[in-house]
């Protein structure tokens, strides 16, 4: 299991060090600093073996988190734990930065003591942790409170405590998708997929039993065509769920039922590859005029209902390292050559569906004797659209709370769809 | 502390009460000040001081001097302060064991506290204090906590048992904690179950045979129930534990699989991977025609693909595992090629792994797409990545025949870019393509030759030289090209030197007229001016071959080469099976068995996939079991071993096919295993192709007589060297009896020893194969001999460095000396041996061929021979018949010489050859022999004369053994 856990700043100074196993010594702290943080070379692997000791690391801004072990641990678990640890810290004190870590080091030690016992991850749900790791010093809990805490931490529904009350029962569903594309210069789709998340913010009293439905092809087909009421169904390649969802029930009936944690949680993640609506099409044209000049023309076309508006559009056209000057003309928005990023960045605030726009640029190059050809990185794009590119629709989210006197109709529900660009690239 | 001071200077957030200030204590008299503060009456001040102490501890300062003062703060109602003191205790208790006792009372008291959080905290912390004396006090509170009414305390106590076991295993057993822990598997609370499983699994790892977990259908059912209810981490513990279970039959296996599959939709990737591990393992047991089997295969693909949208570090872990899964069951992901396409922003470690998998999944159906991608990658920035991409193109050509032409033209395009490392990499892979498709793409040689000057890496140079040598007849200026390399011969790496030597010899055999000078030059460079034994030996072999029998030389050097296999760098099947059992763990990331990187006994146990035991197929199962167990050679011969390949060496295939993964495991045990595999392969191949060819045998056999006397010694040694490498008996070497079982496993608690004796380069060696057929790991091997006739004794300790796991085999060769104590044995060549390991001492006796004792300087002067023969009384002469021997006298003589039986003279009388021979034993005894061979008669007569007639019988046995083998 995990033998020790260290947090370093960007210089490699230790901010937190907690050792769980006897086989990990203080020298392990230095070994990682010398061999990984101070190594000249780029990190070639997130797992490093130094003198029979294995180091797993993740980086958050300029903070390094490293888990150390001498055993054959479950590597996937170690990384999941490190991510979880970041989540917990963020939930307690916001951004993970050197300053925040130093300001909260006592808290972090307390958390580490709780969520990792002898290197075994324990309950690390923030909701549960916040009930008893408070940093407000002693809190004289009554006997009932104490047993409520312990039963929640160890219980079957470790993510929610009992006795939550709201005057207004409300829930928000966000369908957040990121659409990924790799397109050849000729406009052929090399790969495209949507990875989506359903994020739920719930403010519901009691222990509400929820049921979530969407236009999943398998479910719609099962119900027969009559029940489809014209709703387009989508094929979901795969999905994963928050631990509150009853997986065996999903496996058997494909129904998504759960008791949600209070507040925000990521209910579901999914991935689709079929019938994706690609919101934008990028058509590049690069011409080399002699050895010292490039002509670039890029057309973007929006491909969705004219009534919808895309926002925060940004097209990034890479330029060679030996660029000396750039002239840009664009029809819409603003474009700038950013020498430090080796790219022309073209920004458009808003763009309606079924429109097109164009940019042309002349790039002057310094003559070089570097034989190596310019690698021509792909043109990438960022945007945000108010629909789900996968075509996913929420059909219902029903809430039952048998013990309290509110019904599904009393709950105010909000649904929102946001499609964002993931890695949306066109080769040129 | 520098940052701490800086922080102090620009602290804009000073108004807020923050903890960072504790990092900024003044340096002078710090400890003294802290001491005062710790003993302050004010609670707040105390707490502040403890925080400062912890901050100093974190940055690595030694604050152990404050031990008593900090421990004094332990008695408090303030939970936060208490936790801080505990943290301090855990760090320093070990260095101050006596002081740590002071804390015991508080712990014991806290374990009785009304608040379950305090009880759990106490038992958790106590387990972390690794002081022997404390553990005694820990037992009682722990016993109570294991039965506590609160599940939070129980789940903490469960882990505490594992902690205590780590400190004092005996104590845990004596106190019966293991039984209590086992009971917790049936606890009502899922988290208690999960922690108990985790603790038991860890303890079981250090007791491979203990059957601690005692998994049976009932307990499995309990685990599967808990699986649905516990936290994500608990699910991982349970799944990892389930993976160690072997279901009784396919039906049980299927029902477990059905209950595990829902986990594939869990948001936690580790849960998913552990579920995949269980499924991959249990699937082995399902009959392939079962509908459920194909359903399961289909269910596995989507979650594996989903892992690729996780964070990059997890993607890396997932990809390393997918690499294994694809090798084991290629059908799962065969349609998912696109998801492995590299993204521009992927970290380099993800890119490299994806590339590996792309090649494995490449097939005729998707090759066009793959090639287009690879071509893109070859223009990227990262040098390693680009190289790998170029190599990948070559491997596609080898794998998918239909694409070979396109691959070659893509490679030529890449060579045109003139980017140095791209060109070199391309040439290396083109060499492999030539090997795979002989006489098909040689038209590109001209292009390759243009780039000769830009090659600066040994591998690329060697590849190019190989190409020139191999196709010398089609390259007009081959001799000039090779000559140009010869100028800096001594500055080249060994790889290039060897290749150049071979290439020039090939050239000579193909165009003998113009290149005689060149070949002379390279042979003398290799044999006279080089310090490298490999190079020298190869030089001598060629020299002798060329000088004695050019026809044979042609047959050997220009022999047809075996085709290279399509799949390179596959993981060896037994290792792959073991790694599949370790999916998700570090072993699967390193692609090495845990024993290669875990110290001590943990993880040494080798896991293997279950054999299929369907109701109808139970008869077949033992076979499957053994095949999985460790006899890799069955599958191996089709794959040419890729590294250090002796056969390749001789057949001038110097460069192994491209290899990227699988660094050789560092343990000697593993390397020995590898050698064995090689030896086996070589043996059979040589036996078929070379050993059987008479031309070859004659070429070698006649050589020593023709060789100039001065060369005799080095060549002999060199040859021995060369052939000894793989432990392979060549027809010409000293006779080595086949290995026989000396000590059956039945008699030695599972240790089986078989072996033989050999004399190599003047050293007597006992060659042993140790096989562990028991269930537990064997260590601490040692060997001793009883006194024996010739004073044989081990010249060194038995070199078994790594523990021998169950079903593991190790080959050891033990050099022997002849200076040990002497006692006459009956029979004379009997040897009594004692072998000890961690389990017991075992005795066995074996007989060594006396030819082991024949020394190299046993050739007597003719005159001396005559005189001695006369001198020995006729009573000492004994006569024997050797029947059914079909060698002629010359062949017999050369064969015997291999075993240091030297022919001094030969006389032919009336069609009967009389050979006079001498032998010297290691203890100085001379044996003289007269061998009579009559043409057409397969019965030989041998007369032996010796001053110690007792040895005659043994010597005769040797004659018989040598001549008949």
Automatic annotation (TrEMBL), chain A:
One of its GO terms (molecular function) is lipid binding. It is a peripheral membrane protein. InterPro entries: Adaptor_comp_med_subunit, AP2_Mu_C_sf, AP2_Mu_N, AP_mu_sigma_su, Clathrin_mu, Clathrin_mu_CS, Longin-like_dom_sf, MHD. Residues 168-427 form the MHD domain. Keywords: Cell membrane, Coated pit, Endocytosis, Lipid-binding, Membrane, Protein transport, Transport. It is found in: Cell membrane; Membrane, Coated pit. A 1,2-diacyl-sn-glycero-3-phospho-(1D-myo-inositol-3,4,5-trisphosphate) binds at residues 334, 336, 338, 347, 349. GO terms for biological process: endocytosis; intracellular protein transport. CDD domains: AP-2_Mu2_Cterm, AP2_Mu_N. GO terms for cellular component: clathrin adaptor complex; clathrin-coated pit; plasma membrane. Pfam families: Adap_comp_sub (PF00928), Clat_adaptor_s (PF01217). Belongs to the adaptor complexes medium subunit family. This is MHD domain-containing protein.
TrEMBL record, chain B:
Residues 854-964 form the Beta-adaptin appendage C-terminal subdomain domain. It holds the Pfam family Adaptin_N. GO terms for biological process: intracellular protein transport; vesicle-mediated transport. It comes from the Eukaryota. GO terms for molecular function: clathrin binding. Residues 609-671 are annotated as: Disordered. It is found in: Endomembrane system. It is a peripheral membrane protein. Residues 735-845 form the Clathrin adaptor alpha/beta/gamma-adaptin appendage Ig-like subdomain domain. Keywords: Acetylation, Membrane, Protein transport, Transport. Coiled coil: none annotated. GO terms for cellular component: clathrin adaptor complex; cytoplasmic vesicle; endomembrane system. Residues 629-659 have a biased composition (Low complexity). PANTHER family: ADAPTOR COMPLEX SUBUNIT BETA FAMILY MEMBER. Belongs to the adaptor complexes large subunit family. This is AP complex subunit beta. It comes from Oncorhynchus kisutch.
């Amino acid at each position: 299991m995990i033998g020790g856990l260290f947090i370093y700043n960007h210089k490699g100074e230790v901010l937190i060090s907690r050792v769980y196993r006897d086989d990990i010594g203080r020298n392990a702290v230095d070994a990682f600093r010398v061999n990984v943080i101070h190594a000249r070379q780029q990190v070639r692997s997130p797992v490093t073996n130094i003198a029979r000791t294995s180091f797993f690391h993740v980086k958050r801004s300029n903070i390094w988190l490293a888990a150390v072990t001498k055993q054959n641990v479950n590597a996937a678990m170690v990384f999941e734990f490190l991510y979880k640890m970041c989540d917990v810290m963020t939930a307690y004190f916001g951004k993970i930065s050197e300053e925040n870590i130093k300001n909260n080091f006592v808290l972090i030690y307390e958390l580490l003591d709780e969520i990792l016992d002898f290197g075994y991850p324990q309950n690390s749900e923030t909701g549960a942790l916040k009930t008893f790791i408070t940093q407000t010093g002693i809190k004289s809990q009554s006997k009932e409170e104490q047993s409520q805490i312990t039963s929640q931490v160890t219980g079957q529904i470790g993510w929610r405590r009992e006795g939550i009350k709201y005057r207004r029962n409300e829930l928000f569903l966000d369908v957040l998708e990121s659409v990924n594309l790799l397109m050849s210069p000729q406009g052929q789709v090399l790969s495209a997929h949507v990875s989506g998340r359903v994020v739920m913010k719930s403010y519901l009293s009691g222990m509400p039993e929820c049921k979530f439905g969407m236009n999943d092809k398998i479910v719609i087909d099962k119900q027969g065509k009559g029940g489809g009421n014209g709703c387009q169904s989508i094929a979901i390649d795969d999905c994963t769920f928050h631990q509150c969802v009853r997986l065996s029930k999903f496996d058997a009936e494909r129904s998504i039922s759960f008791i949600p944690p209070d507040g925000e949680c990521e209910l579901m993640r999914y991935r689709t590859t079929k019938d994706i609506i690609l919101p934008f099409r990028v058509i590049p044209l690069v011409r080399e005029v002699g050895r010292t000049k490039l002509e670039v023309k890029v057309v973007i076309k929006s491909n969705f209902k004219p009534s919808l508006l895309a926002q925060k559009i940004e097209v990034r056209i890479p330029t060679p390292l030996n660029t000396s000057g750039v002239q840009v003309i664009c029809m819409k928005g603003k474009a700038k050559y950013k020498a430090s990023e080796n790219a022309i960045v073209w920004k458009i605030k808003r763009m309606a569906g079924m429109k097109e726009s164009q940019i042309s640029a002349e790039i002057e190059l310094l003559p070089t004797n570097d034989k190596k050809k310019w690698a021509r990185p792909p043109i990438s794009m960022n945007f945000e659209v108010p629909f789900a590119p996968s075509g996913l629709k929420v059909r219902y989210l029903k809430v039952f709370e048998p013990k309290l006197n509110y019904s599904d109709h009393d709950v105010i529900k909000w649904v929102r769809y946001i499609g964002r660009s993931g890695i949306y690239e066109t080769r040129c | 502390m520098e940052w701490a001071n800086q922080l102090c200077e620009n602290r804009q957030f000073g108004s807020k009460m923050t903890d960072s200030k504790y990092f900024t204590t003044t340096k002078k008299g710090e400890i003294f000040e802290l001491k005062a503060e710790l003993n302050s009456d004010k609670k707040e001040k105390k707490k502040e001081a403890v925080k400062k102490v912890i901050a100093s501890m974190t940055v690595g300062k030694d604050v152990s001097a404050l031990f008593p003062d900090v421990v004094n703060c332990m008695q408090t109602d303030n939970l936060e302060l208490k936790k801080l003191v505990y943290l301090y205790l855990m760090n320093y208790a070990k260095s101050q064991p006596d002081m740590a006792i002071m804390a015991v009372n508080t712990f014991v008291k806290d374990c009785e506290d009304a608040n379950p959080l305090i009880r759990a905290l106490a038992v958790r912390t106590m387990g972390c204090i690794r002081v022997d004396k404390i553990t005694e006090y820990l037992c009682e509170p722990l016993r109570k906590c294991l039965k506590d009414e609160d599940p939070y305390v129980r789940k903490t106590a469960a882990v505490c048992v594992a902690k205590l076991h780590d400190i004092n295993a005996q104590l845990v057993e004596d106190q019966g904690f293991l039984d209590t822990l086992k009971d917790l598997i049936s606890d009502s609370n899922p988290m208690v179950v999960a922690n108990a499983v985790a603790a038991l699994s860890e303890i079981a790892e250090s007791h491979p045979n203990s059957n601690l977990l005692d998994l049976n259908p009932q307990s499995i059912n309990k685990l599967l129930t808990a699986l649905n209810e516990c936290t994500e981490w608990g699910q991982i513990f349970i799944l990892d534990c389930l993976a160690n279970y072997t279901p009784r039959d396919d039906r049980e296996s299927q029902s477990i699989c059905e209950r595990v599959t829902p986990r594939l939709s869990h948001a936690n990737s580790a849960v998913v991977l552990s579920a995949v591990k269980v499924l991959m393992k249990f699937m082995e047991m399902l009959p392939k025609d079962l509908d459920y089997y194909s359903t399961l295969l289909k269910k596995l693909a989507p979650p594996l693909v989903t892992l690729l949208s996780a964070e990059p570090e997890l993607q890396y872990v997932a990809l390393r595992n997918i690499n294994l899964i694809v090798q084991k069951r290629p059908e799962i992901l065969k349609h998912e090629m696109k998801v492995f396409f590299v993204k521009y922003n992927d970290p380099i470690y993800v890119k490299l792994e994806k590339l590996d998998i792309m090649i494995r999944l490449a097939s005729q159906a998707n090759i066009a797409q793959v090639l287009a991608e690879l071509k893109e990658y070859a223009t990227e920035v990262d040098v390693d990545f680009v190289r790998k991409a170029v190599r990948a193109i070559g491997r596609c050509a080898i794998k998918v025949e239909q694409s070979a032409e396109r691959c070659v033209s893509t490679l030529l395009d890449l060579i045109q870019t003139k980017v140095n490392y791209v060109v070199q990499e391309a040439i290396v892979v083109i060499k492999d393509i030539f090997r795979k498709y002989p006489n098909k793409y040689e038209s590109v040689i001209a292009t390759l030759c243009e780039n000769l000057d830009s090659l600066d890496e040994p591998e690329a140079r060697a590849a190019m030289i190989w190409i020139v040598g191999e196709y010398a007849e089609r390259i007009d200026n081959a001799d000039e090209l090779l000559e140009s390399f010869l100028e800096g011969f001594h500055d080249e790496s060994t790889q290039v030197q060897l290749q150049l030597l071979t290439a020039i010899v090939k050239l000579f055999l193909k165009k003998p007229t113009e290149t005689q000078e060149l070949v002379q030059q390279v042979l003398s460079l290799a044999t006279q001016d080089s310090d490298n034994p490999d190079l020298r030996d190869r030089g001598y072999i060629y020299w002798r071959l060329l000088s004695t029998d050019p026809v044979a030389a042609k047959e050997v050097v220009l022999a047809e080469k075996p085709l290279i296999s399509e799949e390179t760098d596959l993981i060896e099947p037994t290792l792959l099976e073991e790694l599949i059992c370790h999916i998700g763990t570090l072993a699967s990331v390193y692609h090495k068995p845990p024993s290669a990187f875990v110290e001590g006994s943990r993880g040494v146990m080798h896991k293997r996939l279950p054999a299929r035991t369907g109701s109808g197929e139970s008869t077949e199962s033992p076979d499957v079991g053994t095949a999985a167990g460790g006899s890799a050679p069955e599958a191996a011969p089709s794959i040419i071993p890729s590294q250090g390949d002796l056969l390749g060496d001789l057949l001038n295939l110097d460069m192994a096919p491209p290899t990227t993964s699988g660094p050789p495991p560092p343990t000697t045990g593993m390397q020995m295993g590898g050698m064995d595999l090689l030896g086996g392969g070589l043996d059979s191949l040589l036996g078929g192709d070379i050993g059987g060819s008479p031309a070859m045998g004659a070429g070698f056999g006649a050589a020593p007589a023709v060789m100039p006397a001065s060369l005799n010694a080095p060549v002999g040694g060199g040859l021995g060297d060369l052939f000894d490498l793989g432990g392979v008996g060549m027809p010409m070497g000293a006779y080595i009896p086949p290995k026989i079982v000396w000590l059956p496993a039945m008699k030695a608690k599972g240790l089986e020893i078989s072996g033989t004796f050999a004399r190599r380069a003047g050293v007597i060696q006992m060659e042993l194969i140790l096989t562990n057929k028991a269930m537990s790991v064997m260590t601490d091997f040692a060997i001793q001999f009883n006194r024996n006739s010739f004073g044989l004794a081990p010249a060194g300790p038995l070199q078994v460095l790594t523990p021998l796991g169950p079903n593991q085999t190790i080959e050891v060769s033990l050099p022997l000396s002849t200076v040990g104590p002497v006692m006459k044995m009956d029979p004379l060549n009997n040897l009594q041996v004692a072998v000890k390991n961690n389990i017991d001492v075992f005795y066995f006796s074996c007989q060594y061929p006396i030819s082991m004792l024949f020394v190299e300087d046993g050739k007597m002067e003719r005159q001396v021979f005559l005189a001695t023969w006369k001198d020995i009384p006729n009573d000492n002469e004994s006569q024997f018949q050797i029947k059914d021997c079909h060698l002629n006298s010359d062949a017999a003589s050369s064969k015997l010489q291999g075993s240091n039986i030297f022919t001094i003279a030969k006389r032919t009388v009336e069609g009967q050859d009389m050979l006079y021979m001498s032998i010297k034993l290691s203890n100085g005894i001379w044996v003289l022999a007269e061998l009579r061979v009559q043409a057409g008669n397969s019965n030989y007569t041998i007369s032996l004369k010796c001053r110690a007639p007792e040895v005659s019988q043994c010597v005769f046995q040797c004659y018989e053994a040598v001549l008949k083998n």
